[in-house]
Amino acid sequence: MAVNYFPHYYSIEDIFVTHEKVECKVNTKLQRMGFLDAGSETDHLEPGRTVNLPLWYIKELKVSNAYFTVCVPEIYKNVHKAVCEAETTHIELGRLHPYFYEFGRYLTPYDSNHVIGRIIFETLRQRVRYLLDISKNDVQSRSSKPEHRLDNIEANLHVAGTKTNTQYINWLQMCSNKICISQLVEEHQKKRKRADCSDDENDSHPASKRATL
Amino acid sequence: MFGDKAFDLLKDLERSSQTIPAFDDDGLRQVLEEIKAIFEENVAQAQSQGQASSYTLLHFRHAALQRNKRCLLAYLYERCRRIKALRWEFGPIIPDDIKQALCEPEIQFFNNYSKSLAAYMRAVGDSQGIDLTSNLRPPKSLYIEVRCIEDYGKFELDDGEVIHLKKNSQHYLPRAQVESLVRQGILQHIS
Amino acid sequence: MSDTETPAELNLSTEPDLAHAVEEEEEEDDDDMEQITAQKVLEILETAWINETNAPELLQHQSDMLELMISQVSHMEEQMRDLDKNDFRAVVHSMELERIRYIMASYLRCRLQKIETFTQYIINQDAAREPDDKRLSPEEAKFAQELSQNVDEYFHKVATQYMPNQQRGEAEQRIITPNLMSHVFLKANVAVPAVIVGVDDEEVDLAPGSQHIIPYQLVADLIQTNKAQLI
């Protein structure tokens, strides 16, 4: 079954993205919402203050709401120069933000200057070729984990890419036909073996361990 | 912040290296309590007919409540997904140590799922049936070479021939009939 | 349930074509297959299988074809019992049977996977369809209903019964839908004029045998009517 990134209500990845916080400016006095502002001295949220709000709340707000103005996160501004110079393949995107594209996508409607949308589009356009290259060259067994280099979506593409490539190579070499032990059974057996090993250790020190049993 | 506990449920589930980590009874209860508390505060505020400016607070709490629900249900949904995988990989009986990580309703869920899947597989093709948990790879040969990983004992083939599967012994057997033993880790397919 | 199997692998088999084996059987047999040959049945199933593995949504079920094929398989098994195990024909025939069994199992597994993911969506869609157009076979429909109930029951027992009542729209929000705009690889079986591609009503004529990458939704009807197939 073909799978692509298409988040739904139960998507854990999407829940992770929407857990991210964004800086917002308070525009009007908000009664009894002082708890959102750690530095607040009153019960209320005062205009002019900045607060960090979770994305799951922001996306429920109207773009033109009178209470908060969403600020464009620094990371997108920082990438801007690299995008212009077409140098984005060197950016360690995963370190910058683990959900660089999705986070940006959620913020696009709140960004009145329309920079985020352009930045994430250009970044991906520039990097996709590079992603293809490393997917072809990284064999699965060689576990060069490029995690900090890639954002979550890129990492998923990378995994899918290397997997397809490995399957293709196996197919060419006609060695894809082996029946494998089921993955969960294998994990389970390993765990059992580890447990057995520690049991043996227990037996060799009966006095010290018996007491705890 | 609201919703953080619910988020932790998911984070722990994702981080755990276990097949299925133990059902987080305590975490779940705390999230349910938070949901209830938010709900009651909102009801109280709505009844006291506060000023219009506190609408934002109402709205914020509502979003927090929905957020909590979403995290909690996603936690359960992901567990469902993994429990279903158990049926396909281990068969109709869950190993005891994994079973300990499940709560009673989850065991019930597994049993129901196992039953419907079995009923479905029996009913396919005008009740002639087909086992979907086997025939997992495209077949290339009728017979395969296998090594026995653990003592299994007697194994009877379709034609009545009986073989002894002893640890470390090697056999050349019909693929279709031994596939499930390989999947269960009793035999290993060698080439 | 992670099917990593690729249809392409099967085509690599150097064994004689299954169709011949089955047809041979059929000639010895009487014609309980009426108009349709076993070869044709297998072809239909193979196409359905490849379409199903590549389409983002659940396609029309093929209960009739499956039924025919399964009877044919057990019939062949019956006859082979009389053959010597080392007879060359027996080896070839059993190999073909294994292949058919694999195709059927893989096909049904793929459908179950979709049913499990998009349970409610598929149930709702099918409820609005005429009996003849239903995507789910009766067995699949039963399985989907049971699964949906089973999940609801579990959710209810551990969580939802302790939550404030659901609001309007919440149930709909939770339905998981397939991404019908996913791109697919397509091969035209016949000439198809004026297929709309892209948002600005741009049109393209598909030549028979030509191959394309295109969002699924724009060609879903071509798959349904067998004017094109996924690859």
Keywords:
A: 213 residues, mainly alpha, Methane Monooxygenase Hydroxylase, Chain G, domain 1, 9 helices, 49% helix, extended, B: Methane Monooxygenase Hydroxylase, Chain G, domain 1, 3-stranded antiparallel beta sheet, 5 strands, SLD5_C (chain C)
What does this protein look like?
The complex is a heterotrimer of chains A (213), B (191) and C (231). By secondary structure, chain A is mainly α. Chain A has 2 domains: 7-71, Methane Monooxygenase Hydroxylase, Chain G, domain 1, CATH 1.20.58.2050; 73-177, Methane Monooxygenase Hydroxylase, Chain G, domain 1, CATH 1.20.58. Chain A has 9 helices and 3 strands. The longest helix of chain A is centred in the middle third of the chain and has 22 residues, at 116-137. Chain B has helices at 4-15, 25-47, 55-90, 96-99, 104-127, 175-183; strands at 143-148, 153-156, 162-165, 170-174, 187-190. Chain B folds into 2 domains: 4-123, Up-down Bundle (Methane Monooxygenase Hydroxylase, Chain G, domain 1), CATH 1.20.58.1030; 143-189, 3-Layer(aba) Sandwich (Ribosomal Protein L9, domain 1). The radius of gyration of chain B is 25 Å and the shape is elongated. The model of chain B has no long low-confidence stretch (mean pLDDT 89). By secondary structure, chain C is mostly helical. Chain C folds into 2 domains: 36-169, Methane Monooxygenase Hydroxylase, Chain G, domain 1 (Up-down Bundle), CATH 1.20.58.1030; 179-230, Ribosomal Protein L9, domain 1. Chain C contains 9 helices and 5 strands, in the order ααααααααββββαβ. Chain C has helices spanning 7-11, 18-28, 38-54, 63-80, 88-117, 119-127, 138-158, 170-173, 216-224; strands spanning 183-188, 192-197, 202-206, 211-215, 228-230. Chain C starts with 6 loop residues before the first helix and ends with a strand. Chains in contact: A-B, A-C, B-C.
Rounded mean pLDDT of chain C is: 84
Low-confidence stretches of chain A: 201-213
Q: Which overall shape of chain A is indicated by the principal axes computed on the Cα atoms? A: extended
Structural class by SSE content of chain C: mainly alpha
CATH architectural designation of the largest domain in chain A = Up-down Bundle
As for the CATH topology of the largest domain in chain A, it is: Methane Monooxygenase Hydroxylase, Chain G, domain 1
Distance between the termini of chain C: 22 Å
